[in-house]
Design brief:
- This protein has about 425 residues and is α+β, with helices and mostly antiparallel strands.
- It is built from twelve helices and 19 strands.
């Protein structure tokens, strides 16, 4: 959500920022609605003052024993007219809110300009690529008899997976390893959040109303979460938190549910793009002046778990055409997948500034200050468990027997197992 006061005072600059997102000028419609709403508010204030004056006259007339019927009719007419104005003001406010709610965040100045993912800028690479190419996780998992797409499809249709045996345990091991690292080394507090949320929670983090088609809605006024970012960020919704409370850092391991409405025909093979998948999510809530530093810190946390797994990856800065709706700036971490002979996204780490906080009315108060400020929120995958499993299976594949070596850091979570074999 955007600050209407900022738009009034920086209309040209705001339109310039929206143009970076590929949008036409937005301020003519915004300012027109804003002006109409303020005109109605002024009329309401003036009529309220007149009504108060006439109401006093009624009291004075009655006190002197006179007939106040004329004034009473006048006040009654004003009341009816005020009700109409209030209804008009609410309609204009809703229209303005709807328009602002559909506009993406303003991006940071250093976000590179570009059309799509091909224009993202590589920041650095880490790790040695030991397998430049090889079979993908589908072929490996099916030969091991531990990744089953056919049975899952019988139960649920496309884009679902059934894992079994050591492969199912490795998925769980990855999640536990990520959680233990983030809570034990990175100062995150583990949370077990609701998986079903109401409209207001999804509105607060920006999924509603614009991206409703990407979500799964129930028949009882709830939605399945597309990411734990939604409940974790909403922990501070409608709150004014003290400065000493910050920064707050939360992490959670949850299933995520996405309809993938806009990805027809994309990544249909294997586990890369699923309707249901597991992810360890990180969310930070900070004071405004701390969010950029926290963004870099959070990126380091996500990269660290991949380093511990000894998975080669590269980190890129997303360009303007690839930056998400709520993000001011985003780093993507892309892990090397020998089965595709390329790097694929495994984590996105975004700084949303006060964009989500305005939608959630989440604020902070500094010591000895009466005024409040909107918080800054950040989120990042720490990381996607399914894609981490794909990366381990493909990078630790042993062509000699078709098995998969267990990364050193996962062995304690796998009961000391050295290798997954048929």
């Amino acid at each position: 959500m955007h600050d209407i006061k900022y738009i009034r005072n920086h209309a040209q600059g705001f339109d310039k920022e929206m143009a970076r997102r590929g949008l036409e000028p937005q301020t003519p419609d915004i300012l027109k609605l804003d002006e109409q709403r303020r005109e109605v508010q002024t009329q309401l204030q003036e009529m309220q003052a007149q009504r108060n004056t006439e109401s006093k006259k009624i009291g004075e007339i009655k006190k002197s024993g006179g007939d106040a019927s004329v004034q009473m009719e006048k006040v009654a007419a004003m009341k009816a007219q005020m009700a109409q104005l209030e209804e008009q003001e609410h309609a204009l406010a809703d229209a303005l809110k709807g328009l602002l709610s559909g506009l993406p965040n303003i991006m940071a100045e250093d976000v590179p300009q570009g059309a799509d993912e091909d224009d993202n800028v590589e920041r650095h690479k880490w790790g040695e690529i030991k397998s430049a190419s090889g079979p993908d996780h589908v072929e490996i998992g099916e030969k091991l008899g531990m990744i089953d797409f056919e049975t899952a499809a019988k139960m649920s249709g496309a884009r679902f997976t059934l894992l079994s045996g050591p492969m199912a345990r490795m998925e769980r091991a990855l999640a536990q390893f990520f959680l233990d690292t983030h809570t034990g080394e990175h100062d995150y507090t583990e949370v077990s959040p609701p998986l079903l949320v109401r409209d207001n929670a999804l509105y607060g983090t920006g999924q509603l109303p614009k991206f409703a088609e990407d979500l799964f809605e129930t028949t009882v006024d709830h939605w399945l979460i597309p990411t734990a970012e939604v409940p974790l960020t909403n922990i501070v919704a409608e709150q004014i938190v003290d400065e000493d409370y910050l920064p707050r850092r939360y992490c959670a391991f949850t299933p995520c549910f996405r309809s993938e409405a806009g990805s027809a025909g994309k990544d249909t093979r294997g586990m890369l793009r699923q309707h249901q998948f597991y992810k360890v999510e990180m969310v930070s809530v900070t004071a405004p002046e701390e969010s950029e530093q926290e963004h870099e810190r959070m990126l380091g946390c996500a990269e660290n778990v991949l380093k511990k797994l000894e998975l080669p990856f590269r980190t890129v800065v997303l360009c303007s055409g690839d930056t998400g709706f709520c993000a001011r700036k985003t780093y993507d971490i892309e892990v090397w997948l020998p089965g595709q002979e390329t790097y694929r996204e495994i984590s996105s780490v975004s700084n949303c500034w006060d964009f989500q906080a305005r939608r959630m009315n989440a604020r902070m108060r500094k010591k000895d200050e009466k005024d409040t400020r909107f918080l800054h929120t950040l989120n990042g995958s720490g990381v996607a468990v399914g894609r981490a499993l794909i990366a381990v299976v493909e990078n630790y594949y042993d062509p000699a027997d078709g098995g998969v070596f267990v990364p050193e850091v996962l062995k304690p979570y796998m009961g000391g197992l050295e290798k997954v074999v048929k």
